[in-house]
Amino acid sequence: MNKLLLIAILVVMLAVVVVLAMGIGSFGKGGTEGARKSNRMMQWRIGLQALAVLLIFILVSFAGKG
Q1: pTM, whole model, 2 decimals?
Q2: Where are the domains of the chain?
Q3: How far is it, in rounded angstroms, from Cα 51 to Cα 14?
Q4: CA 20 to CA 47: how far, in whole Å?
Q5: Which residues have C-beta within 8 Å of that of residue 62, sequence separation ≥ 6?
Q6: 2-44 tens-digit pLDDT
């Protein structure tokens, strides 16, 4: 179970980095559409970061019991 959670955490953390890079890239393009896409990417990043924190919390709580 711990290995599965660790893999899920790593995948989510990688997704955070990818979404962050995409958001920064679209921010650099400028214009209304670029700003809109950048804002959407940053919202996704915040959600993925929250998911990563939740998964880390679950992993730590399981590790404390075992």
Answers
A1: 0.82
A2: 2-65
A3: 12
A4: 12
A5: 1, 2, 5
A6: 899 899 999 999 999 999 998 888 877 778 887 888 888 889 9
Cα angle vertex 17, ends 13, 19, to 5°?
Answer: 110
Closest residue by Cα to residue 18 from 51, 41, 40: 41
Angle at 22 between CA 36 and CA 12, to 5 degrees: 115
Cβ atoms of 56 and 6 closer than 8 Å: no
Buried b (16+ CB within 10 A) or exposed e, 1-35: eeeebeeebeebbebbeebbebbeebeeeeeeeee
What are the CA-CA distances from residue 51 to residues 33, 40, 61 (Å)? 27, 17, 15
Report in angstroms the alpha-carbon separations of 7 from 1, 2, 31, 46, 47: 10, 9, 38, 20, 18
